[in-house]
Amino acid sequence: MTTQTTILEKVKIGFRPLQPGEPDWIYRIRREAWDRYLEQPLPERVQNIWRYTAPESFLAKNIDALMNLYPVVPDGSNGKPYPVTPEYAAIGYNLDNRMTVTKMTPEISAKGVVFKDIYSALRENEGFAGRFLGKLVGASFGKFEALNLALWNTGFFLYIPDNTVIEKPILMNRHPGGQFTMGRLLVVVGRNSEATIIDDYAGECRLEDPAANSVVEIFVGDSSRVRYVNLQRLSSRCSSYITQRAQVEQNGSLYSIFGAMGSALSKVNAGTILNGKGADSRMYGVLFGDNGQHFDYHTMHHHKASESYSNIDFKVILKDKANSAYTGLIRIEKETANCEAYQENRNLLLNKGTRAESIPELEILADQVRCTHGATMGPIDPEMLFYLESRGVARVEAVKMIVGGFVEPTISQIPSDLQPVLRNLVLDKLGSEL
Amino acid sequence: MNEKKVIFAFKDIHIEVEGKEVVKGVSLEMREGEKHALMGPNGSGKSSLANALAGHPNYTITRGEAFINGKSLLEMDATERARAGLFLAFQYPLAIPGVTVANFLRSALKSKYNGDENILREFRKELNEKFQALDIDKVFATRYLNDGFSGGEKKRIEILQMAMLKPQVCLLDETDSGLDIDALRIVSKGINEFAPKDGAVLLVTHYQRMLNYVKPDKVHVMMAGQIVRSGGPELALQLEEQGYDWIEKEVMKAVEV
């Protein structure tokens, strides 16, 4: 792997030529990002965010092939086989061949919602969509984020206008398949609107390349309420790398919910910038690893405005030889007042041989702040098991009850319509493993 | 008088904890409908006996035998013992965060009766009745089991579990400790009302005070891992008045002889 890196850095691989129909401005952003990818060294393993996972795992290996994986723009037939089922307001599919299909109910398209594959959206709305692309996760964010901006080959764009309430969730199916999928999701929500996004990564992948390098950018306008659910249940052979950033404006709120079950190697960097006064961000995570799965989750809450509120509740269950590193950064800027920031990470280790790390990082520059953080880790208490068994509950059921109970206080805090999704993910994983 | 069926019996039970023998050969026989009190000072082995009989993994029964309804108990694991009709009310009930009292009881009942859903038909109604009888606020049904409950609340919930699970043999391990007078009265009333009429109850306690409410048929005194004396309810009163010292002296004398 090191040899490959060296080759990349010595022989600067030139970016591909402009493609027919490709707008100049998009091409320029890609080419510059490519240069940034080449320029940036591999992240050093000294900072917490890279201490627990080898960055080599996420390098692009088959560069020539990757250069030639463009987004495939859907033709007019636009996804006949993909109806919007009644529980959703819209459904999108990123398919294995990089084709993106999106479907909305007539009700929400009448409200002016735009939901499209990201390439079409950018080409058609340079003035609008182009203003947001890469603004939260750009080429200088990091090496692999630069790689994504250079070579993204699939993804969605979602725009919710002002004063628009979308009651049912918008489901995005992300299915990285035979090729290295580099997806981008760009969400722009206007003022005083409401939406729920379920960003669901599932499927198989090849072994040679990382399965997915995904970037998510979410803009939440004044007084809007957005819920973003990130489900990662890729096959246990995959490796995945997801960077998500959101920016919440005045009195806006964002619930970010992470269900992490899949991949052999999963690195996620999720963060919210509280950019307006009274902004509110809550992150809930339920992570369940087994076999040799490795999870590296980083969360960030950046308070840039006064009276902003953030809360993180991150639960980790590990089994077999699975391991998890959780690092959580809270940064509160000096010129803010009365911010509140909370962080809690609990780890349940179902057997010896599992390993969990929990690292809080606090950068609190303001004086008037309320901030707490806490972490716990440990096995199931054998006394708890005996207590349940003494009531006639079988061992397997008792473990299920305790594990279910471990995540329940977290799950019960997320909106009730989304609770079954996470509960089922945990139960499925438990059921198949005990 | 002793025509009634033996419901629960154990013979020559020896128990080790971390390699140390804490119970040194105790035997007892309980017949249908009987309540026995097992008394004794701290560290006499009463709680070890109750926990070991219920199948606690830290207590090893190294010798002896035990039967519930004629079935041999010691080959069974803790779950099987419970399913055979044994119930242990814990001295220090554990909290199970994330599992509500109602859901726990529903699962435990279903599990105890091997997934038979019929058992749950009257569940809600029955649960409400028993909450009322034990003077427990209804909100406890949706609270996480023992999570943040006071000592007295936990003890009530233990008796509630007994009432719902309907065991045949109840080992009540210091259910009276940590209760104020009102709570003691309510819990005792619950034991009298819900303990199985055709089963057996073993009250493990330091004090006579609960025995004013729950009348035992027999009283046994345990010291240093052995039952050193058995008698009727009057034995408990005598202990209350005179403490355990006199028995200890008598036992010592007997050993010398």
Write out key terms for the chains shown.
heterodimer, A: 434 residues, alpha/beta, 9-stranded mixed beta sheet, globular, disordered N terminus, B: 257 residues, Rossmann fold, 6-stranded mixed beta sheet, 4-stranded antiparallel beta sheet, 8 helices
Question: Any overview of this molecule?
Answer:
The complex is a heterodimer of chains A (434) and B (257). Chain A has a domain at 2-276. In chain A, helix 6 packs across helix 7, helix 9 (382-389) crosses helix 10 (395-411) and helix 10 (395-411) packs antiparallel against helix 11. Chain A has a 10-stranded mixed β-sheet with strand order 2-1-5-7-9-11-13-15-17-19. Chain A is globular. Chain A is α/β, with parallel strands linked by helices. Chain A has 11 helices and 19 strands. In chain A, 50% of the residues are buried. Chain A has helices at residues 2-10, 24-39, 48-51, 63-67, 106-110, 118-124, 126-132, 143-151, 382-389, 395-411, 419-433; strands at residues 90-94, 100-104, 114-117, 154-160, 170-174, 181-189, 194-203, 212-220, 225-234, 239-248, 253-260, 265-274, 280-289, 294-303, 309-318, 323-332, 339-349, 355-364, 369-378. In chain B, the strands form 3 sheets. In chain B, strands 6-9-10-3-11-12 form a 6-stranded mixed β-sheet, sandwiched between helices. A 4-stranded antiparallel β-sheet of chain B has the order 2-1-4-5. A two-stranded antiparallel sheet of chain B has the order 7-8. In chain B, a hairpin with a 2-residue loop joins strand 4 (59-68) and strand 5 (71-72). Chain B contains 8 helices and 12 strands. Chain B is α/β, with parallel strands linked by helices and 257 residues long. Chain B is 35% helix and 29% strand. Chain B has a single domain, classed as Rossmann fold. Chain B starts with 5 loop residues before the first strand and ends with a helix. The A-B interface holds A 381-384, 386-395, 397, 401-402, 404-409 and B 54-57, 77-79, 81-83, 87-88, 90, 93-94, 96-99, 104, 107-108, 111-112, 144, 161, 165.
